[in-house]
Design brief:
- There is one protein chain.
- This protein has 480 residues and is of the alpha+beta class.
- It has a domain at 4-181.
- The protein has helices spanning 3-7, 13-17, 40-45, 50-54, 56-62, 131-146, 185-193, 197-211, 221-243, 293-312, 316-346, 353-365, 370-379, 389-402, 407-417, 425-436, 441-450, 461-464; strands spanning 22-24, 34-38, 74-76, 80-82, 85-87, 95-102, 108-114, 153-165, 169-179, 245-246, 268-269.
- The strands form four sheets. A five-stranded antiparallel sheet has the order 2-8-9-7-6.
- α12 (353-365) packs antiparallel against α14 (389-402).
- The longest helix has 31 residues, at 316-346.
- The radius of gyration is 23 Å and the shape is globular.
- The structure holds adenosine monophosphate and magnesium ion.
- The site of adenosine monophosphate has 17 residues, from loops.
């Protein structure tokens, strides 16, 4: 056996437990694979020797070719509401699940490819992905992970040697993605729409086993599963809000059951605080604007609840009442996470709702840079960020009165939750433009910087600053 054959030991519990939602499929050949970036830390977590993954046989596995005997990749079926419109059949049009690996912590993780060729779910798509967007997913996923936000992560990006047709011809790539699972709200929508109660139950049981095993012993396991997903998503979106992250395409097929962030397409981080911020070129109505994200998450969870009703209770009225109570709890759970997170960002021992609300409004009105503000607050330099500093003074006096006595401890605690470095939009674009042209150095540097976001380092001031004044508003494109 070559090392690559023993490299990753794949299980296939998803394909075994819900075979009707797993279509066996083969990754497209890759003419000239070139490993662009390998996530050594993540490889170690998976228990794989990174050096072996870098060898040709390892790179072959990373693009889904030359897999260990008996491993059959599958395209996963799912439906989804895209910008509010239900699409009954989406699925992995250009992606494949290679299988599941038990990591060194004993956690089951999906290993999945994106850009691995057309599948029967491809509809009009070419099944391919371009280097820039795949590196973007790698970069933002690492930044989110370093910020302590649940997320899928990229193990590798491999250039294919092929050209991909987008607005222009771009170099192609395959992303290898690791996730707690790829179960989505849309997976449940697909199973529910099939009308086959056994498939739906098998899917829910698989989700319980993977993400909430305690629920199996509950009086109503499926209601418990729902409660767990609602709580996970409420916590997740609160964390997004607390770093100024805009996902950009919160369709139900991009909403996970695990509570991990998934699908870094048109996402971006705020500069100035503004709830109306939209980066995606196709989000004309602002459905997925920064400030709408909690409401949209709850809307997506309502769609999940609908699919689970037949499992929750045979009496639909009873099921609706129970599910509605869980769904309603989203608002409170979200508000608690957000209030506690805001308090921590401000150095307070406990939330102060009025102080927090007045701050968010002040930051919005004064167009203050989100990330810079919180770090400057700890450094006592925030005043200069305000066009009308006396408005800040009034607010700061109120905060001052609430601060714990040990100021050094306050500053240290704030600096542990307020990052210096996020993937600033202009830096991301510069890095991806260079990478697409063949120079990966700026990309690697940026990954390094955002992978250690809380520790201020000398010579990295450029990475901490917002985009230079006078730039056009940042726009992201879905054509990935
Ligand atoms: P996404 O916007 O990446 O969440 O994808 C939404 C849906 O479109 C999923 O069903 C994808 O598999 C599919 N899709 C996106 N891009 C392509 C592509 N280039 N080829 C085939 N299917 C695609
Ligand atoms: Mg998606």
């Amino acid at each position: 056996m070559t090392p690559a054959r023993t490299l990753l030991e794949f299980d296939d519990s998803y394909a075994r437990q819900v075979p009707s939602l797993a279509l066996p499929w083969t990754a497209a050949p890759v003419p000239a694979p070139e490993l662009l970036v390998l996530n050594e830390g993540l490889a170690a977590e998976l228990g794989v020797d990174a050096a072996v993954l870098r060898e040709p046989a390892g790179v072959s596995v990373l693009v889904g070719r030359e897999l260990p005997d008996g491993v059959t990749p599958v395209a996963q079926a799912y439906a989804g509401h895209q910008f509010g419109t239900y699409v009954p059949r989406l699925g992995d049009g250009r992606a494949l699940l290679l299988g599941e690996v038990i990591d060194v912590h004993g956690r089951r993780r999906d290993v999945h490819l994106k850009g691995s060729g057309r599948t029967p779910f491809a509809r009009g798509g070419d099944g391919l992905a371009a280097v820039g967007p795949m590196l973007r997913e790698y970069l933002v996923g690492e930044a989110m992970h370093a910020l302590g936000i649940p997320t899928t992560r990229a193990l590798a990006v491999v250039a294919t040697g092929e050209r991909v047709v987008r607005e222009s011809l771009l170099p192609g790539a395959v992303l290898c993605r690791v996730a707690a699972s790829h179960l989505r709200v849309g997976t449940f929508q697909y199973a529910a729409a099939s009308g086959d109660r056994d498939v739906l139950r098998a899917l829910a049981d698989h989700a319980i086993a993977r993400h909430h095993p305690e629920a199996a012993g509950a009086a109503n396991p499926y209601l418990e599963l729902y409660r767990h997903v609602v709580e996970a998503q409420a916590g997740l979106v609160a964390r997004w809000m607390l770093v100024g992250f805009v996902h950009g395409v919160m369709n139900t097929d991009n909403t996970t059951i695990s509570g991990e962030t998934i699908d870094y397409g048109p996402c971006a981080f705020l500069d100035a605080v503004d709830p109306a911020t939209v980066f995606s070129s196709i989000d004309h109505t602002g459905r997925y604007a920064y400030g709408n994200q909690p409401a949209i998450a709850q809307w997506n969870l309502a769609r999940l609840g609908e699919t689970l009703l037949p499992l929750i209770d045979g009496d639909v009225d009873v099921a609706v009442e129970a599910a509605t109570a869980v769904l309603t709890s989203f608002a409170e759970t979200y508000a608690r996470h957000h209030a506690e997170g805001t308090a921590a960002k401000l150095g307070l021992a406990a939330p102060d709702p009025d102080l927090a609300a007045d701050l968010w409004e002040l930051l919005r009105a004064q167009h203050v840079d989100f990330t810079t503000f919180f770090r400057s607050l700890a450094a006592d330099t925030a005043r200069s960020l305000f066009a009308e500093p006396e408005l800040f003074d009034a607010w700061a006096t109120r905060r001052e009165a609430l601060l714990p006595a040990d100021r050094a401890a306050v500053v240290a605690a704030m600096n542990r939750v307020n990052p210096v470095y996020i993937p600033r939009n202009h830096l991301v674009e510069e890095a991806l433009t260079a990478a697409t042209a063949g120079d990966l150095a700026p990309f690697r540097r940026l990954v390094d910087v955002v992978s250690d976001p809380y520790e201020q380092r000398p010579d990295l001031d450029d990475y901490a600053r917002p985009a230079p004044e006078g730039r056009d508003p940042y726009v992201t494109y879905c054509g990935t």
